[in-house]
């Protein structure tokens, strides 16, 4: 498989506290890679290092063969931050248009892209409202729509499903599945096990360590359990043991 | 193209934020009007003075609408009276000398009394002079009558060649010399505002643009939209230029409103070209803008942004011409020269009051541009904090 993102031996500390310990991962085209772990495990920190928003203390990140940080590569990445970074006094449509223009979406495709991405998250009816009047879930959906605006080759989504109702969640997963089929690469983070089951490849993260990785099925088989939650618990325990040794 | 996108966004955000709009466009007018009236209201001051043994004609001459005279019937101590009755002064005549004692708690009132007494003395002298002129005029008339008499006695051929004598014009109306006191105070006070207007103008533009632009970039950072923005292929410089042009347009509108308000509502006269005034204000606003953006890098909250005002904005007022910089100690003069407002206010004063042309203020204007350049570069460096490339 063609590697889109490679993270090799990345360490990161904040205020002398080690947050990431030797993180390695590869995200490939045609594949949804899930980073799963409890809150505070370091998922967002990994994402930020991938995006070049944080610099690793050690190790490196390459995307499409370019060492990050790299401004041009950002053109091919659709990013959704964990906190909704939106312009509250602008309408949903104005937010989408603003980012579309920053990505250089052509004028004749602008409206088409806006309608399409809003459609993916069922937001067409609310595009005329100001974001300050949006609910938390609507903001999440708008953030997701923005990440799709320039039709990126790589999607990096930090907790995209928080606050989104089950029906729409299904719709979003189907859409992501379609993109993967088209050859895009997708990295998502989540702390919900149901989301994890949707991924092709999983990385389980605990306290800045990757404790195990593999496809959901193979992980369940490997740890000899019938759900991913138990995989996480078992993997965590064996990781602790190996740490103590 | 991306710069324009950011500029447009800032514009839309700005015009939807009614409070900020009011702060930018209404608050400066409010403050200027307030100052205008404050400096005018001095003309309503009334100083109480006690008098003893001063001739009533002199008292009448001293009296004006800023003075209230209390005649004392007995010889009292000036100091005691001032203290007891809270008078601003006391005038007493002894042995042909006029002795004035001032309370001097309010220099304003002391000044009024001083001027009134001096004016009264001058007036008295003028009256005496006028009286003397009248006398000499009467003498002249007499001589003229005699001349006519002589003329009549001469043969007609000669008398025709002698021009009819007439009294010099200025002697006909000695009352021409009357002075109006009103002019002195009213005008001198309103012209203080006029003198300070260039400084206030520069300061208003600087202060509000500094605050608003700084806070807006700070909000962009705190709401994480700056991170989001930097996750697109936008260049750091494009963000800075977008902000500069977005708030630059706002600054142009603000400056135009303030300047037009001063001219048409407050009736201030601008001797030089209004376009040069606008240009200087605009350049000053751009410096304020770039400084505000840069300083916001070091503020974690709006409150911390406000904390920069006493450090960065307030000291500039002192060096902007309120106190003549030329009279300052050497090291203070050096400080003045690192303050953008010093150059801005000096250029504005030259244009507004001395009718300087643009070429005459090029030195100050260039200094402002240097500040602008330095801060733009600093901003580019500051942005590296958020994204390395
Ligand atoms: N900028 C930062 N400064 C200091 N500590 C940080 C910073 N960012 C994250 N952390 C810490 O790193 C740890 C991992 O955080 P994060 O990556 O956000 O976890 P997750 O996304 O898995 O919930 C947390 O303990 C958090 O407090
Ligand atoms: Mg997170």
TrEMBL record, chain A:
A Pfam family of this chain: ABC_tran
Annotated InterPro entries: AAA+_ATPase (IPR003593), ABC_transporter-like_ATP-bd (IPR003439), ABC_transporter-like_CS (IPR017871), P-loop_NTPase (IPR027417)
Keywords attached to this entry: ATP-binding, Nucleotide-binding
Record carries keyword Membrane: no
Phosphoprotein is among the record's keywords: no
Domain of life: Bacteria
ABC transporter domain: residues covered: 5-232
Gene Ontology MF terms in the entry: ATP binding; ATP hydrolysis activity
PANTHER family per the UniProt record, alphabetical: ABC TRANSPORTER G FAMILY MEMBER 20 ISOFORM X1, ATP-BINDING CASSETTE, SUB-FAMILY H, MEMBER 1
Name assigned to this protein: Fe(3+)-transporting ATPase
């Amino acid at each position: 498989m063609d590697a889109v993102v490679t993270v090799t031996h990345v360490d990161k500390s904040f205020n002398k506290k080690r947050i990431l310990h030797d993180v390695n991962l590869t995200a490939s085209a045609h594949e949804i890679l899930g980073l799963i772990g409890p809150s505070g495990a370091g998922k967002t920190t990994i994402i930020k290092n991938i995006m070049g928003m944080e610099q690793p203390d050690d190790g490196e990140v390459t995307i499409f063969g370019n060492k990050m940080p790299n401004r041009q590569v950002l053109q091919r990445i659709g990013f959704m931050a964990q906190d909704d970074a939106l312009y509250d006094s602008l309408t949903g449509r104005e937010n989408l248009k603003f980012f579309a223009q920053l990505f250089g979406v052509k004028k004749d495709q602008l409206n088409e892209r806006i309608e399409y991405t809003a459609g993916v998250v069922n937001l067409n009816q609310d595009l005329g409202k100001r974001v300050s009047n949006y609910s938390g879930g609507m903001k999440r959906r708008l953030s997701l729509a923005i990440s799709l605006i320039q039709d990126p080759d790589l999607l990096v989504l930090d907790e995209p499903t928080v606050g989104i109702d089950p029906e729409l969640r299904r719709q979003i997963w189907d859409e992501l599945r379609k993109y993967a089929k088209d050859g895009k690469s997708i990295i998502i983070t989540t702390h919900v096990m149901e989301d994890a089951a949707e991924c092709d490849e999983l990385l389980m993260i605990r306290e800045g360590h990757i404790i195990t990785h593999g496809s959901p099925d193979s992980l369940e088989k490997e740890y000899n359990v019938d759900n991913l939650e138990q995989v996480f618990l078992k993997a965590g325990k064996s990781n602790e043991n190996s740490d103590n040794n | 193209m991306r710069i324009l996108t950011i500029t447009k966004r800032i514009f839309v955000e700005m015009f939807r934020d009614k409070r900020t709009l009011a702060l930018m466009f209404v608050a400066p007018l409010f403050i200027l009007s307030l100052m205008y009236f404050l400096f005018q209201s001095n003309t309503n001051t009334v100083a109480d003075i006690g008098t003893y043994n001063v001739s009533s004609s002199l008292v009448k001459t001293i009296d004006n609408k800023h003075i209230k005279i209390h005649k004392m019937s007995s010889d009292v101590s000036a100091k005691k009276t001032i203290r007891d009755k809270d008078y601003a002064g006391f005038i007493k005549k002894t042995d042909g000398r006029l002795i004035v004692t001032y309370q001097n708690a309010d220099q304003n009132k002391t000044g009024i009394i001083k001027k009134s007494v001096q004016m009264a003395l001058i007036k008295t002298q003028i009256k005496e002079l006028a009286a003397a002129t009248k006398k000499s005029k009467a003498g002249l008339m007499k001589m003229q009558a005699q001349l006519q008499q002589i003329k009549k006695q001469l043969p007609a051929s000669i008398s025709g060649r002698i021009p009819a004598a007439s009294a010099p014009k200025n002697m006909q109306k000695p009352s021409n010399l009357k002075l109006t006191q009103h002019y002195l105070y009213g005008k001198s006070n309103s012209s203080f505002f006029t003198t300070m207007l260039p400084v206030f103008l520069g300061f208003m533009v600087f202060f509000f643009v500094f605050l608003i632009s700084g806070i807006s970039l700070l909000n962009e950072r705190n709401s994480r939209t700056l991170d989001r923005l930097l996750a697109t292929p936008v260049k750091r410089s494009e963000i800075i230029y977008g902000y500069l042009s977005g708030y630059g347009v706002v600054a142009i509108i603000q400056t135009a409103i303030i300047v037009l308000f001063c001219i048409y509502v407050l009736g201030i006269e601008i001797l030089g070209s209004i376009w040069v005034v606008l240009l200087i204000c605009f350049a000053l606003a751009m410096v304020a803008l770039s400084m505000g953006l840069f300083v916001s890098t070091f503020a974690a909250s709006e409150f911390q942004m406000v904390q920069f005002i006493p450090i960065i904005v307030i000291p500039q007022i002192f060096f902007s011409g309120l106190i003549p910089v030329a009279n300052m100690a050497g090291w203070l003069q050096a400080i003045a020269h690192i303050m953008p407002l010093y150059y801005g206010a000096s250029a504005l004063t030259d244009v507004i009051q001395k009718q300087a042309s643009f070429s005459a203020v090029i030195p100050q204007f260039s200094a402002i541009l240097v500040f602008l350049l330095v801060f733009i570069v600093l901003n580019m460096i500051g942005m590296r904090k958020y994204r390395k490339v």
